[in-house]
Amino acid sequence: MLANVARDARLDRKFLLLVALSTALATLGLLQGSAAVVIGAMLVSPFLGPIMGLGFGLATLDSGLIRRALLTLAIGVAAAVLLAMALVWLSPVEDVTAEVRARTQPTLLDLGVAVVGGIAGVYAILRRLSGVMVGVAIATALVPPLSTIGFGIATGRPDFAIGASLLFLTNTLAIAFAATLVARLNRFGPSLTPKHTALQVAGIMVALGVLSVPLAVSLQKIAREIAVRTTVQSVLSDIIGPDDRVDTLTIAVEDGKVRVDGVILVSAYQADLATTLMRRAGRQVARPMEVKLV
Q1: pLDDT tens, residue by residue, 206-225
Q2: Are 105 and 148 in contact (CB under 8 A)?
Q3: pTM greater than 0.90
Q4: Of 158, 192, 239, 258, which alpha carbon lies 20 to 30 A from 125's?
């Protein structure tokens, strides 16, 4: 089993070809805003191989396997980011789609998904359940963040590149550490004393704890933005008439300011609708607002 894990962590032409294909699919899917294409890229991605190799290498203290996995992972990441940058530069479409934006704000929930996915992945390796790895590949989504990094660099959006980098790092470390713990529980590893095992576990917990700090901050930010959107929508529902209808409504929280842009279908024109919404909602959200309603 360890030989199979080591083989999947090897850097060869097959690995680089799959990296190129999955990156191309992910980048094109992100630019199109196509979730189906992005999911296809996840299935083609070979990154689970070196990540699992890193996890088993940490469990068995096999320095050769760890070096092999890290080298394969580093070259694969560099190749994916460079290819994504090239595709974005060549593309006439560089819009920030919902698929791109979804990879720029990782939270603690993403860490939880990666940990559970890592556990499922190791279980699939131990029980030789290849079908389970398909679900793990989709759930952990390793290639789309790399394509988003390339998109952020190519379009001059460092915030996108940083957010996507944090997401990829979160997924990679969480999967590898989950693999390490599960492998140790299944007696993969040298005859270590309980003290050595405890040190392994403590090191993993500390690393995940440090990683969880920015993720928790991001989760709190998203929670606050959701609360603001809910408040604005509620106030708008209260001030329009019973026969009026909201056609489109975009609510964004940027730089501490709430920006509202929408189209309302009304039975009678209300000249002060935007002003009323800005005044009432502004009091509740305690933030400056900019409202544009048609």
Answers
A1: 776 776 777 777 677 777 77
A2: no
A3: no
A4: 192
